[in-house]
Amino acid sequence: MKTNKIITLITGGNRGMGLALATKLATAGQTVIIGTRNLKSGQTAIAPLITAGLPIEAIQLDVTDPASVTQAAAFVTEKYGYLTTLINNAGAAFDFGMAPATVSQALLRKNFEVNYFGLIDVTQKFFPLLKQTARAKIINISSMMGSKTAALDPKTGVYQAVAAGYQSAKAAANMYTVQLAKQCQREQLAITVNAVDPGMVATEFGGATPKQAQALGAQTVDTGIARTFALATDFDNTETATFSNVDGPVAW
Ligand SMILES: NC(=O)c1ccc[n+]([C@@H]2O[C@H](COP(=O)([O-])OP(=O)(O)OC[C@H]3O[C@@H](n4cnc5c(N)ncnc54)[C@H](OP(=O)(O)O)[C@@H]3O)[C@@H](O)[C@H]2O)c1
Hints:
InterPro entries: Fungal_SecMetab_SDRs, NAD(P)-bd_dom_sf, SDR_fam. By secondary structure, the chain is an alpha/beta fold.
């Protein structure tokens, strides 16, 4: 067992919440690897952090490209031999506002490629590395958009939102979270698997600018990453199969 350094991989770490989390976790002393589908973009994003002496590096990782995921896992295997925390943060929405009756198969599949199949491919390929630590974590960045309870509750912001492909993919990833967590429990693996809802956050997600998102009521990136940061730094917390935000558990 090699447990000396906390090694954390964050997919989609070149911007938005992924980059903010990477910065905060590296500042807290974790060795952070950001997965970035465009290596140059990731390297540019973390250049000031490296200059500041933070333990962070970028690797090419497109979650929808199996060869890229395989290569990234091989790199981490070779360099570290284990992984403490996997944060499946990469995500994208392609069908905001589109009518469920007519949204194209192509767009539905695109949503699933990134938010569901991509997340699972990364998880499966890094799973052997997570098994090499005394206590490991998988944190899946989900969304209330994937909550059927919220979608049916007129009191929530999600009630008015329509993005059937994105929402279904996040809901499916939530179920994957539950099933993988239960497998880890059955097999007595010291790996927790949890989903986090960051809330509506002022990033470039969905094509808006952070300013536009803020005008629509989005919260700051700092607030958006707070729950994930808390989970990623609390190694006494053995809760698994949870879905939560900064205020506590949320409805699946
Ligand atoms: N912002 C919100 O209001 C909100 C609310 C709920 C949940 N979320 C979730 O939070 C997570 C982070 O979102 P964000 O707000 O930080 O969004 P963002 O600023 O748009 O960042 C998304 C990140 O995902 C990466 N990505 C997209 N497709 C990828 C792929 N195929 N392979 C690897 N990386 C890929 C992007 O890389 P590129 O730069 O290469 O595009 C980018 O780094 C997502 O999972 C999102 O669904 C966001």
